[in-house]
Design brief:
The chain is 23% helix and 29% strand. By secondary structure, it is an alpha+beta fold. It folds into two domains: 99 residues, Rieske [2Fe-2S] iron-sulphur domain (Rieske Iron-sulfur Protein); 185 residues, Alpha-Beta Complex (Naphthalene 1,2-dioxygenase Alpha Subunit, Chain A, domain 1), CATH 3.90.380. A hairpin with a 2-residue loop joins strand 10 and strand 11. Helix 1 crosses helix 4. Keywords: 2Fe-2S, Dioxygenase, Iron, Iron-sulfur, Metal-binding, Oxidoreductase. GO terms for molecular function: dioxygenase activity. This is Aromatic ring-hydroxylating dioxygenase subunit alpha. InterPro entries: Cholesterol_7-desaturase (IPR050584), Rieske_2Fe-2S (IPR017941), Rieske_2Fe-2S_sf (IPR036922), VanA_C_cat (IPR044043).
Length: 354
């Protein structure tokens, strides 16, 4: 039943919740972090990863572990279409196949697929990978939200790494009410009431958590989306002085680094085309971007200051319905995945005995 990474935390429900349920796509980093001819090491979802580009520029994501002795491949040599371990020269290709063992040509290791390799893709300036369980479980199609998929929308990516559990960011994103307090001095969230009643509205891919008595004034709703990857979408009304494009939408996701750190991705989006696209890009870079980073800084300070046992001493109320639902979703998925892993292990033992 042990997880392929060897991390014992991933063999428990709590560990899977804290480090991210498997059989999902996750965003790893900005695309420009993975440069041609270089090897990039990342830790995501409690696993050590190697990211690199082949000679055609295609990004690859693999376990950062040489199949020979477990040395870090990220300390090795980029060879165009393969990576060579710097310890004994063992060469592994983009499919995880050992293509050469220079110290012992023709040995049994050659030609074997021995390196865990993750299906990967790039979209909207970010690198994404599929974390399957079992590790050879094929990915579902990668389906991003409309705002970063449709050519009618323009977007900018803000990427951060924070010293807080990834679930704190998901809680924050699914909590529209904090906008009226924490961000009350923001240029877009200063209006509206500071009390509200919320409801949950079902969708085909998740649910919307929205105020029942205020629309289009402040941060009034959040949408939880599951398309084989966890996304959050929200909308911030914009004044006419912010340029063309109507309301400002943010598409977000978060990825655990480990149990106490995470990476978060915020695509700031507006539906603009032609000259309006150029006008909004100019306004964003010259006037709006710095203000958005200031809002993120408020979120960072709040999340990083929260104790790691914050959930254990909460007293939730009506505004927190979305948080309760989200946590149930995560725990249910982690429980289901561990049960499936246990069933596979039992079937394997029965097959051996037969």
């Amino acid at each position: 039943m042990t997880h392929p990474s060897g991390n014992p935390a991933l063999d428990t429900v709590d560990g899977l919740v804290r480090l991210g349920p498997r059989n999902r796509w996750y965003a790893l980093c900005r695309s420009d972090l993975v440069r041609r001819g270089q090897l990039t090491r990342l830790r995501r979802l409690g696993e050590d990863l190697l990211l690199w580009r082949d000679s055609a520029g295609t990004v690859h994501v693999q376990e950062d572990r040489c199949p020979h002795r477990g040395a870090r491949l990220s300390q090795g040599v980029h060879m165009g279409d393969r990576v060579a371990c710097n310890y004994h020269g063992v060469q592994v290709d983009a499919d995880g196949v050992v293509v050469s063992v220079p110290g012992s040509p023709g040995c049994a290791l050659e030609g074997k697929r021995r390196l865990r390799t993750f299906p990967a893709t790039e979209h909207a300036d970010a690198v994404f990978a599929w974390f399957g369980d079992p590790e050879d479980a094929g990915p579902v199609p990668f389906v991003p939200p409309l705002e970063i998929a449709d050519v009618e929308w323009e977007h900018f990516l803000a990427y951060v790494e924070w010293d807080a559990p990834w679930l704190y960011s998901l809680d924050n994103l699914m909590d529209p009410m904090h906008g009226a307090f924490l961000h009350r001095k923001s240029h877009t969230m200063s209006g509206g009431r500071r009390e509200a009643v919320f409801q949950i509205r079902e969708t085909d891919t998740g649910f919307v958590f929205e105020k029942t008595d205020q629309v289009g004034v402040n941060f009034d709703w959040s949408e939880w989306i599951d398309t084989g990857m966890y996304w959050v979408r929200l909308e911030i009304p914009y004044p006419a002085t912010a340029g063309p494009g109507g309301p400002f939408r943010i598409v977000c996701t978060a990825t655990p680094i480990n149990e106490t750190q995470h990476a978060a991705f915020f695509w700031r989006c507006r539906r603009v085309q032609g000259w309006e696209r150029d006008a909004w890009r100019f306004l964003y870079k010259t006037r709006l971007e710095a203000r958005h980073w200031a809002v993120l800084e408020q979120d960072r300070q709040m999340e990083e200051a929260m104790p790691l046992d914050a959930w254990d001493r909460e007293n939730l109320y009506q505004h927190d319905l979305a948080l309760v639902r989200l946590r149930r979703i995560m725990r249910s998925e982690a429980t289901r995945q561990l049960a499936a892993r246990q069933e596979r292990a039992g079937a394997g033992r029965r097959e051996v005995r037969a």
